[in-house]
Write a structure and sequence with these properties.
The protein contains two helices and nine strands. It is mostly beta strands. The protein folds into two domains: about 90 residues, Chitinase A, domain 3 (Roll), CATH 3.10.50.40; about 50 residues, Thrombin, subunit H, CATH 2.40.10. β7 and β8 form a beta hairpin.
Length: about 160
């Protein structure tokens, strides 16, 4: 019996993610496959939808629009801050990442511009607003254990509660 990907499947995939220009943004190549619990919001919605019903051995390409990926870029997440807010950082450069305390708790921000005493940061996910192109191979599919379902993620021995 071939097990198909559905809610509470533990799925291992190899993938390569590219942007519209064909540049590789992320890949499991050269490392372990990505293993996740299907239906527990561990992947972006669009990719999870594409994986639904597939079996081990399936290979496919999927194009995911921003609304089914990391969402549209939110202009409210881009702010210009005074340099003094970055105390203890002597040299602030574009591309540097920081963890900031925001209204919803901690969030990752990236410096996008530095002009005199002003630093522009972006709190959007780096892939927000982008169309994502995935090449995927399903490596394995198994049923999740009751504990994995209860915890909402795969237990592969790499973490402890």
């Amino acid at each position: 019996m071939t097990l198909m990907i559905g809610k509470n499947s533990v799925v291992a995939i190899n993938y390569t993610l590219t942007n519209d220009a064909g540049e590789v943004m992320d890949s499991s190549e050269g490392g372990a496959p990505l293993t996740y619990l299907h239906g527990a919001h561990n992947l972006i919605a669009g990719l999870e939808k594409e994986l639904e019903g597939k079996a081990a051995g399936a290979k496919f390409k999927a194009t995911i629009a921003p609304e089914d990926g990391y969402g549209e870029s939110d202009p409210a997440m881009i702010q210009t801050l005074p340099r003094e807010m970055f105390r203890g950082v002597d040299n602030i450069e574009v591309g540097m990442g920081f963890t900031a305390q925001g209204p919803q708790g901690q969030q990752h921000i990236v410096v996008t511009a530095v002009s005199g005493d002003e630093v522009t940061v972006d709190g959007n996910h780096p892939m927000a607003g982008k169309t994502l192109h995935f090449a995927v191979e399903v490596i394995s599919v198994r049923e999740a254990t009751a504990e994995e379902i209860d915890h909402g993620h795969v237990h592969d021995g790499s973490h402890h509660h």
